[in-house]
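This part of the workshop introduces the protein records we will be handling. Each record describes a single protein and holds just a pair of labelled lines. Instead of coordinates, the fold is spelled out as a row of discrete tokens. To make this concrete, we reproduce a full record directly below:
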Amino acid sequence: MPYLELLRPSNIVILFFGTLLGAFVAVGNAAFFRVETYLAGVVTILVGGAGNVINDYFDVEIDRINKPHRPLARGALTRTQAFRYWLVLNVVALVVASFLTTLNLIMALFTIPTLYVYSRHLKRALLVGNLVISALVSLGFLYGAASTGKTENVFYPTLFSFLLNFGRELLKDLEDVEGDGACGADTIPIRFGATATLALATLSFAAMIGATVAPFWTGEYGVAYFLVVTLGTNLPLIYATAQAWRNPTKQNLYRQNTLLKVAMAFGIASVALGKV
């Protein structure tokens, strides 16, 4: 179980379905009858899971304060075991990626070391880490589309994912400010405080909500998309933002970040409906 926990299943499941969505947006229902679609999903699970493993590897001391329940922080696994696990996951990911397009392999070769550098250095750098991880997460849609050979139609889901994840990363930094501060991290909450962090997260979420109107307005996505994205993503996003402003405590921010994962799942469903 500790090995499974290290992957953070709820996160990688969202990555998997986001990858499938990218393939679906690119070629329609045919995506689900192509083995390459599912292989791309497996690669994102492996690379994304490995990214979580190496993140915990470098964040043991921080997690002992912020998230003591995590496997390395509580001593369920050693750092050596985690590092070997990270290596195995990435090697398998590259083997699987080699059966996909050249672009898929290049993206995997780029993402693996970038996630390492992010966890080792960039995560604690002011704003840079938030931008990098948000960009990498949003590439899941492009990865799925790349497995089909067509990448023209994934702009909107990639944009939505980036903006939502960027705001969520800021809230996570605010949630983790105690441990980050104790270990010398330079994050927006530590440098500028809770109000500035919440304002920047709110701006990102507002931009995301505004962006969700565009494909409906242009007719690219239909009514079903707009209803689901409004009720399942945008309203929870507004609620979570209001709750974060009302009570920016560690416990409440954790709850709102969990709600944002649900909003992401509905966002994936809405785009799928938009292309039906």
